[in-house]
Design brief:
The protein is mainly β and 341 residues long. It has helices at 187-195, 202-217, 242-248, 278-285; strands at 28-31, 56-59, 70-80, 84-91, 104-109, 112-116, 129-140, 149-158, 168-176, 183-185, 224-234, 252-256, 259-262, 265-268, 271-277, 298-304, 314-319, 322-327, 330-336. The protein has two domains: 28-217, no CATH class; 224-336, no CATH class.
Length: 341
């Protein structure tokens, strides 16, 4: 059962066409690469100041005319780690395929597409949302791993309803993987930035990233390694067989600031926390909470923000050394492997 949020999180929240006539490419300002110790920032938002203090140079991207869908004013030549000199290019949604299509981002080598960035959704569609424009783009090593990351601010609007005229901004962050030529969306960070509205300008995004990183550095009381020791009970509706329940006993769980592990399968993550009344818990699951080892009127409920379905993603903190793990209607007791004194 998925819980609401209090601390950290991950979740994410798109359709105009270009004319058939290829637009004239305007000169654009990009961050100078003359000083390698400085960040490259490209801010294409109207009247937005990056305050980067970096010298700028003029560039012309006429060589990257690969499609009349390309958003030329949001396409930039950049020296990108692992890729060399490439063009980061923005493209309008493909209207003829789906009215909910989202903006696309690619890396080009001349006229050749060499990388297509993953969308926010698997099919790169945004149900009921229209893409309006790319507001700003920046190239910054926000996670300090020595490789440039890509920060994008997009603008969207609902396709219908009372708020159809109200556009909103959404930040997207791509980070390079440690090995190989691949970018991944930093979902936990994006959820935090959009939830707390650090998505208006590049400056506000960077402020939000700092806040997020500080939150991640905080040590939660439940961080640590645990062993599932027994089944404590089942809710009024459950989906695990006795064989599956028995097999879960002995599983190991690890919770750390930016990762979660189930039987040593480690995934990057964040956490959502909620103070849950035990009366509500009893009503939701149809079970006496005292039978689960809960003696207080409130309990901390935690949801691990990972994709997929794994034991240990939803749990209640009973004390410094004990968790009550909920999975498919079954409650398991998990005990800290190295006990806190």
């Amino acid at each position: 059962m998925k819980r609401k949020y209090v601390l950290l999180m991950v979740i994410c929240l798109l359709v105009t066409g270009c004319g058939k006539e290829k637009p004239k490419v305007e000169n654009r300002t990009v961050a100078s690469q003359l000083d390698k110790e400085k960040e490259d920032i490209i801010n294409a938002g109207a009247n937005e100041s990056t305050n980067s203090g970096i010298d700028s140079v003029e560039t012309d991207n006429e060589s990257t005319d690969v499609s009349d869908k390309q958003i030329k004013e949001q396409s930039f030549d950049i020296a990108l780690d692992s890729w060399g000199d490439v063009t980061f290019a923005s493209f309008m949604p493909e209207e003829n395929k789906n009215k909910d299509g989202d903006v696309q981002f690619k890396l080009l080598n001349g006229n050749e597409e060499i990388y297509h960035f993953p969308g926010i959704t698997e099919d790169n569609c945004r149900d009921g949302q229209s893409f309006e424009k790319v507001e700003a783009i920046a190239f910054k090593d926000y996670n300090k791993d020595g490789k440039k990351d890509i920060i994008i601010i997009n603008e969207y609007a609902p396709q219908s309803g009372p708020n159809a005229e109200d556009s909103y901004k959404e930040v997207r962050v791509y980070t390079q993987k440690e090995e190989g030529k691949e970018f991944i969306a930093d979902n936990c960070l994006m959820e935090y930035l959009n939830k707390y509205f650090y998505n208006d300008t590049i400056d506000s995004v960077m402020k939000g990233i700092t806040e997020y990183q500080q939150e991640m550095e905080k040590e939660a009381d439940y961080y640590g390694d645990y062993l599932i020791t027994e089944c404590e009970g089942v809710s009024k509706a459950y989906a695990m067989s006795q064989e599956e329940t028995d097999a879960a006993i002995g599983n190991t769980l690890s919770y750390h600031a930016a990762s979660y592990s189930w039987n040593e399968n480690t995934m990057a993550t964040g956490y959502q926390e909620e103070i849950f009344s035990t009366e509500r818990l009893s009503e939701d699951y149809g079970i006496e909470v005292s039978a689960l080892g809960i003696m207080e009127k409130e309990v901390l409920a935690v949801t691990v923000l990972t994709e997929g379905d794994f034991i240990g993603q939803n749990f209640y903190v009973l004390d410094d050394n004990t968790l009550l793990v909920y999975y498919e209607g079954v409650f398991f007791k998990a005990e800290r492997i190295s006990k806190k004194q």
